[in-house]
């Protein structure tokens, strides 16, 4: 779990610039844009000399309860990462900026009728049951959108909807780059 947090922290800094670069269709600082596919970008980077490839998306819609609690300092990114040196393929994670998750409260991914719990730690969330990750990624490749619900450390519920348009192509490109 600690290694996951270190890798996610590295991706945090890449994601902040990657999201803006994806919109501009330009390479990011520290990461190389392999391609933009619908709402998903495919990237590669080598933090600490170890190759990492990831697909990245921002939510297409987000809301909080109570309403109007979000601000410009908040950012949300969904990753599907591969780290060949660690034999990690298609690790799903969520990264938030501007706030942290409430300790000991799971986030949830919902796609259609299927729900996948995520454990949270500080500003990151990962699939609770790693054995379900491959099935989740397969469902993501075949679906139109997904919703992630979470609780901030201040007790605010957040709901982020992600388009899955282009994820299949982005993940195929990631797999090609990080074999």
Question: What this model shows, in words?
Answer:
- With 179 residues, the protein is α+β, with helices and mostly antiparallel strands.
- The chain has a single domain, classed as Sandwich (Immunoglobulin-like).
- Helices cover 25% and strands 41% of the residues.
- The chain is built from three helices and eleven strands.
- Strands 1-2-3-5-6-9-8-7-10-11-4 form an eleven-stranded antiparallel beta sheet, with helices on both faces.
- Strand 10 and strand 11 form a beta hairpin.
- The protein is globular and about 40 Å long.
- The chain starts with a helix and ends with a helix.
- About 13% of the residues have low confidence.
Give a nutshell description of this structure.
This protein is an alpha+beta fold. It has helices at about 1-25, 135-140, 165-175; strands spanning about 30-35, 40-45, 50-55, 60-65, 75-85, 90-95, 105-110, 115-120, 125, 145-150, 155-165.
Binned strand content: 35-45%
Q: Can you tell me the CATH topology?
A: Immunoglobulin-like
What Rg do the Cα atoms give? 15 Å
* CATH architecture label name: Sandwich
From the spread of the alpha carbons, the general shape counts as: globular
Within the largest sheet, what's the order of strands? 1-2-3-5-6-9-8-7-10-11-4
What number of structural domains do the residues give?
Answer: 1
Number of strands: 11
CATH class: Mainly Beta
Helix content: 10-25%
What is the CATH superfamily?
Invasion associated locus B (IalB) protein
How would a crystallographer describe the biggest sheet? 11 strands, antiparallel
């Amino acid at each position: 779990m600690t290694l996951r947090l270190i890798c996610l922290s590295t991706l945090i800094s890449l994601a902040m610039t990657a999201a803006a670069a994806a919109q501009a269709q330009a390479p990011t600082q520290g990461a190389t844009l392999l391609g933009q596919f619908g709402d998903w970008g495919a990237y590669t980077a080598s933090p600490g000399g170890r190759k990492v490839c990831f697909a990245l998306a921002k939510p297409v819609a987000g809301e909080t309860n109570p309403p109007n609690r979000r601000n410009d300092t908040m950012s949300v990114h969904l990753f599907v990462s591969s780290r060949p040196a660690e034999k990690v393929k298609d690790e799903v994670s969520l990264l938030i900026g501007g706030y942290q998750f409430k300790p000991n409260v799971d986030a949830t991914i919902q796609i259609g009728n299927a729900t996948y719990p995520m454990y949270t730690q500080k500003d990151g969330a990962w699939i609770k049951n790693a054995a379900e990750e491959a099935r989740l990624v397969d469902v993501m490749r075949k679906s139109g959108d997904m919703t992630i619900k979470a609780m901030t450390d201040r007790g605010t519920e957040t709901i982020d909807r992600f388009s899955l348009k282009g994820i299949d192509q982005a993940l195929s490109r990631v797999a090609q780059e990080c074999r």
